[in-house]
Every structure is written in C-alpha cells, then in structure tokens.
Amino acid sequence: MRGLYLPFWIKVWLGMSAAICTMDVAYTILRPASLRGGSLESWFRLWHIYADVDLRYAAPNDLLTHTTGRLMTIEIVMNVVALVLDAQRSKHAALTAFTSTAFVLWKTIIYLFMYIDIPEGNESAFAPDISWWRLFLVFWTMNGIWVVVPFAVMIRLWQIMTESMSLRELNKKSVEKSSLLGVISSDSNNSKSENLSTESTD
C-alpha cells in the first residue's frame, strides 16, 4: 500500500538515530575505557564534551546510563527492522517505526525529568562549574532534539496510518456497495427472465 511507505526524512532520522544510539550504547557499556584517558577515548570525543556537562555520563558505574544504554538496543533493532520492512514495501513498516519512536520519546522525557525539580537530598548530575549557555547548548538543546524530532515523526506516522485505515474503510464500503449492486442487478435479471419465461408459456 503506497500510503504506508515511510517519508524520506523519517528514514534518514531512523538511520541517524540507530547509528548515534549504537555509539551511545558502546560508550556507556565500554566505560571506563571509553572515558577520557581510556584506551578508546579517541572514538568518543563528542561524548566527552557531553560528559563534561552531564556527570552521569562521566561516571563509569552510573546505573541510570547503563540501564538506558541497554534499552537503546531495542530502539536500534526496531529502527533497522522498520527500514528493512519499508524497503520490502511492508505495511508493518509505519507501525514499527511509530513504536520505536515512541520508545525514544518517552525514554528521553523520563531521562530529562531526572534533572528537573530534583527532590531535596539528591545531588544534581550537572557539573557544578558549568556556564548556563554551555548547559543550554550541550544538555538541553541536544536532548531537546530527541524530544522534538521523535514527536514530529510520531505525528506524521500517525497521519499516514490513520489515512491508510480510512482508505481501507472506503475501499471496503466500495466493495460492499458493488457487491450489493451486483446482487440487486442479478436479482433483477433473474426476475426479468422469469417474467419472460412466464409470458412464453402463456
């Protein structure tokens, strides 16, 4: 069904998301080797910039980032599956992409809420000497992208799926109407044939 094909920009996002999340999973799982001074530090320079602001990423034993890193593997697999399904023109591609994107959105929102209105007795995970503009650019802007874009993707995919459902309903009604008209026409022809037979007999 043509209406279920994924738009190009969504396919680009799914591919980029899968690639970036793969690097993120590798960074969190391979700590401390992936941290500054580690044997793999040259592979993760952009993550070091982020870890200078979000100290959870700089801690080799942080439970939250270890957990979210493992959850990302599900998103990565589903993104790849959605792209493969779309290449095969499968009607399941849009639903798979929608589900994967919903996972990304809610995981990011939950992560961000860990930094908003922190209950008394808990320390902030932000670096204490960080400037407000660097905090805004590195933390809120970067994470904000992973809220805004997935939300936009979900809206478009929802439109695609609902439009497809409406089209199927119209086609179903059209087929039912055609079948009904066929039955009526057949009954009418049979009635005419019976009348002609009766007249011939008379």
Question: What does this protein structure show overall?
Answer:
It is a single chain. This protein is mainly alpha-helical. The longest helix is centred in the last third of the chain and has 70 residues, at 132-201. The relative contact order is 0.11. The chain has one domain. It is built from 6 helices and no strands. It comes from Ditylenchus destructor. Keywords: Membrane, Transmembrane, Transmembrane helix. This is Emopamil binding protein domain-containing protein.
Instruction: Give the % helix.
Output: over 70%
Radius of gyration: 28 Å
Provide the succession of SSEs: HHHHHH
- Gross morphology is elongated
Distance between the termini: 56 Å
Q: Main β-sheet, in a few words?
A: none
Assembly status: single chain
- Strand residue content: under 5%
| Number of separate strands | 0
Low-confidence stretches: none
Mean pLDDT: 87
Total separate domains: 1
Number of helices: 6
Helices and strands: which structural class? Answer: mainly alpha
Keywords: Membrane, Transmembrane, Transmembrane helix
Organism: Ditylenchus destructor
Transmembrane segments: 12-30, 93-116, 136-158
Protein name: Emopamil binding protein domain-containing protein
